[in-house]
Amino acid sequence: MNSQQPIQNHPISTGATYAGAGVSIEAGESAVELMKPFTERTKRPEVLGGIGGFASLYKLPVGKYREPVLASSSDGVGTKSAIAQAMDIHDTIGIDLVAMVVDDLVACGAEPLFLQDYIACGSLNPQRIASIVSGIAEGCVRSGCALVGGETAEHPGLMQANDYDLAATAVGIVEADAILGPDRVRPGDVVIAMAASGVHSNGYSMVRHVLLEIARLSLEGYVEEFGRTLGEELLEPTRIYALDCLALARDTEVHAYAHITGGGLANNLARVIPKGLVARLDRRTWTPPPVFGFVSSHGRVERPEMETAFNMGVGMVAVVAPDDVDRAQAILTARHVPSWVLGSIETADQTGDADVRAFLEGDHPRF
């Protein structure tokens, strides 16, 4: 005997619509129109057409290269977007998005060519989406990268109305014989640190847990150490190093870059240190920005945890030939990127742990 109940038919008085399900085609079209002036700012001569087609077209300048290799990278901004949403400030989070992607590309020596974004939201607010895209466009301008298109998706029922999340993919190009990485790193190379602008876009789950849940601080509260509100400090955009790194690689002997993101300084630098070598880094060479001490003290977060969750003030690292250290720092200074000698590459101690390829030694001053 079949115990299943028959499906009941409940006719409705009017026809169902997409808008009634929470998706507005008109809002999407309005958002696209509002985006266009921002995307035009990023246009490179290789870009064919504009926003609105089914696919983006980019004429690859293969004649400029002897043996071109394409590089690609995808990333997002993590839970930093929750701070932007809580503050109702949306025109900088796109800079973070671009930084996370293009600075991964340049780590292998690739010039960023073009980027596509993906924005998912609970309810499509055209002005908010346009504000986000204005930041993405600004990030692309700062990195010399064209914003060629993307997707804005409305997900009612899956996300709250004011929630959104961001992701992007970028493509770059590099000569095959100019690819940077661990195979170029040698004993005696010098590790140069480039200063971060703040927390950047990693560790925000820890930041929110410590400052908003444990300490119960207000994002609108003024913090003397920062000279601004907590929310403004946490929304400081990620520094974009792409053009600086390309200039450095063009004019000095750079062997590797490490973009310092999730996992921290030692773990990310270890990715470009070959077996048999080790990077010895000295904490005494810099003082982390106040925001890191602020998080550490409010959450009683131990140093190993801090150094795994955060960049601690170092956003990018260059491994350069010893004869080019002064020139490299002069170039970075001229480009307004604070830098310092962080450590050096040595032959690994055969009695030590062969799997540990980057060490932090000493203590930060005043941290």
CATH class of the largest domain: Alpha Beta
Radius of gyration: 23 Å
Helical segment count: 11
The topology string of helices and strands comes to HEEEHHEHEEEHEEHHEHEHHEHEE
Structural class: alpha+beta
Outline of this structure?
The protein is of the alpha+beta class. The protein folds into 2 domains: 23-49 and 65-175, 2-Layer Sandwich (60s Ribosomal Protein L30, Chain: A); 182-361, PurM-like C-terminal domain (Phosphoribosyl-aminoimidazole Synthetase, Chain A, domain 2, Alpha-Beta Complex), CATH 3.90.650.10.
Write a structural description.
With 367 residues, the protein is α+β, with helices and mostly antiparallel strands. It has 2 domains: 23-49 and 65-175, 2-Layer Sandwich (60s Ribosomal Protein L30, Chain: A), CATH 3.30.1330.10; 182-361, Alpha-Beta Complex (Phosphoribosyl-aminoimidazole Synthetase, Chain A, domain 2). Helices cover 32% and strands 24% of the residues. The chain contains 11 helices and 14 strands. It has helices at 25-41, 80-87, 93-105, 126-143, 204-214, 230-234, 242-251, 264-270, 290-299, 303-309, 325-334; strands at 47-48, 57-58, 68-76, 111-121, 146-154, 164-175, 190-195, 222-223, 228-229, 254-259, 277-282, 314-320, 339-347, 358-361. The strands form 4 sheets. A 6-stranded mixed sheet has the order 10-12-7-13-11-14. Strands 3-6-4-5 form a 4-stranded mixed sheet. A two-stranded antiparallel sheet has the order 1-2. α1 runs parallel beside α4 (126-143) and α3 runs parallel beside α4 (126-143).
